[in-house]
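Appendix B.2, paired examples.
Example (i):
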Amino acid sequence: MSSVRKPAVVLLSGGLDSATALACAVRDGFAPHCLSFSYGQRHSVELEAAKRVAQAGGAVKHQIAHIDLAAFGGSSLVGDGEVPKHRDEAEMGHDIPSTYVPARNTIFLSFALGWAETLKASDIYLGVNAVDYSGYPDCRPEFLEAFRKLADLATREGVEGRQKLSIHAPLLDLSKADIIRLGLSLGVDYGLTHSCYDPAPDGRPCLACDSCQIRQAGFAAVGVKDPQLARFSA
């Protein structure tokens, strides 16, 4: 049996979910090639977290692609309005929030597909989650399946039959608490990650945006203190 690991592209934001997805790719025997994006996000501190996570998680290579989604606006994550804060669970689940970035996952997956083709890779991992999340339309199973079908028609490798793309979303049906439990069992150091949408200049999380609240609720449900906070407790 060959001991050579097949390559997989892992979309890595530097957040809790993508760090866990990276660990899943390693668990599944792939050689992870991590892809992050500098897209004009107000929380660009997440890119430093992505670098930390990629190194600790055993990435073969970590690539940061530079694109400017802020040029289009349409999201509070790229400076178009304020990030919503102090929302309760009912509010978070009511509608698609202003932190939704138009077509972001479609764009990210397209970049991942291009890199996968050059790597002769047939596997892409991402940390989308449809259960304990903020209602983004591009984090849903039907979107992922539609993109997979598109990929079969969109690349030379696919059309000529050398690539049959698999999109792995191992966290899709897990709660945030279950994601944390899974990550801890795989040795993920969540102290390296960053989730906040509106951090202070030093990266300190606001603890009030949807992402922060969902993260803190997850750690509370597991009964573990969020190790990220220890970096700012001094």
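Example (ii):
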Amino acid sequence: MTTASRIGLPLLALLLLAPLLGIGAYPLHLMIMAMLWGFIYTSWALMGRLGMVSLGHGAFFGVGAYVVVMLWNHFGMPPLAGTIVAVLASALLAFLIGYPCFRFRIVGHYFALVTLALAEVVRLSIVGLRDLTGGSLGVTPSPGIASGETASIYALQFSERVVWFYIVLVMWLLSLYVWRRVDRSMTRLALQAISEEEDAAASIGINVSRSKLGVAMLSAIMTSIGGVLYAQYQLYINPETVSGIAISLQIVFGAIAGGMFVTLGPTVGAVFLLLLSESLRVLVGNQVHGLDMLIYGALLIFFIIYMPKGILGTWLDWWARRSG
């Protein structure tokens, strides 16, 4: 058994038993949010670690959240069916943006700017369709739990946080599995070659556009599912919290801070960012508007310059040197 397995299996067992240990509602909520953001950050890192830096993943996050809620509120379509529509919409959006970019070699800073504009277009579209979406005021999914009930699979609404804990836990583990599959696939090797020298990679038979597009659509689909989970768990969404530029940059920051080149790096980033935001909320509150974004920006610069491998990646390097 490897060292990772010896450490990981007991931690996973402890995580599975956590809701049964009476840890309280607030700590359980923090664990749910940490795993949910870990799922979303891992989805972004599938692209980011392979040279495709997207600053607009809030677009896919917002599509997932709003499509499911709108279909449920206005047409009575159950969220599980709405998730399929949201996934297809996000995959189509990723294709419409990704294919021309990869086909005409819009890479690097230009690709990042295109994705940044995409997030803003989605946000403005949500605000503009205020009769359907509620505009900047946001919207709440219609109640789906009858009086006396605590759960509704049809409406994907659960009053008990324990249910959400295990749902999000399964999705988080699934994201780690997808990460490992991509990491061990030929696609990763192809994309690494493309990121270093695209012409050379194409000359040896690598389909550049198809390789990039496949990972981009997979990342968009997973982020969209994260938006669905967020909307159904929080039971309130608005354009700024699910599709604004701030949420897109938060996704980037979380993945980079934790270490986007390590399997659990984005999850570590999610825990770090969640603890930071909760600490600021308790210590400062809402007295200084924009303080959290200022600190996030300063920390992002720090991590890029001094800790490019993130918290977990830097620690693993230190541990390897110490052990060696």
